[in-house]
Amino acid sequence: MSEPKILLVGAPGAGKGTQSENVAEAFDVDHVTTGDALRANKDVETPYGTPREYMDAGELVPDEVVNEIVKEALTGIDGFVLDGYPRNLSQAEYLGEITSLDAVIYLDVSEEELLTRLTGRRVCADCGANFHLTYAPPEEDGVCDDCGGSLYQREDDTEDVAKERIRVYRENTEPVIQFYDDRGDLVRIDGERAPEAVWEDLRETIDRER
Ligand code: AMP
Fold it and tell me: Between β-strands 5-9 and 151-152, what pairing exists: parallel, antiparallel or unpaired?
């Protein structure tokens, strides 16, 4: 059986990153995520400015930049789980030109829960592990359980920027979800449950769709 090509869609804070890690491990596929790729290159100059200028304001980085990242990441790999892309219809069209998908899975989470998840998120500066002040607090305040590194809040997880990201999502990315739904390709999963329950559902869905 060939490796599955999976697209995970959903709002910022819906759990795409966490669940993509599960998919990558269980199905032995690459995790392709524009958010991480951009964070690792935040201050690289492009013809459109640096990614940071857009990201810290909660806006979308120009299509030309992200399309190139995805094209390069997908070249030469078999299966993948893609997360954080496409975020608008023109990116969705571009993706359709460069690859096919076995399943498009939507993690459905209410707006109130998204804000709670985003603003409470804390990330380890050293190893990148994720914590949450309410849902997954570290044993010691501000210290990573895994490596002892210090925890910080992503600049775009502050309340004002998080709200802007959700607004940008509603305006630009919801039409993408509608696009896949109209084609009959979308599978909806209730993403508002505990990560383990969401994962069980997601794994069964991929096994069925692949
Ligand atoms: P994420 O970690 O997926 O929430 O992405 C963080 C930020 O990176 C977003 O708020 C955008 O500024 C930028 N970004 C990530 N993916 C894309 C994309 N596909 N198109 C445009 N900007 C993106």
Answer: unpaired
Sign of the Cα pseudo-torsion (19, 114, 174, 165, in order): negative
Q: What is the pTM of this model?
A: 0.93
5-29+78-111+164-209 homologous superfamily: P-loop containing nucleotide triphosphate hydrolases (3.40.50.300)
Cβ of 34 less than 6 Å from ligand 1: yes
CB of 61 shorter than 6 A to ligand 1: yes
**Tens of each residue's pLDDT in the chain, 210 residues:** 789 999 999 999 999 999 999 999 999 999 999 999 999 999 999 999 999 999 999 999 999 999 999 999 999 999 999 999 999 999 999 999 999 999 999 999 999 999 999 999 999 999 999 999 999 999 999 999 999 999 999 999 999 999 999 999 999 999 999 999 999 999 999 999 999 999 999 999 999 998
Closest CA to 189 of 176, 203, 178: 203
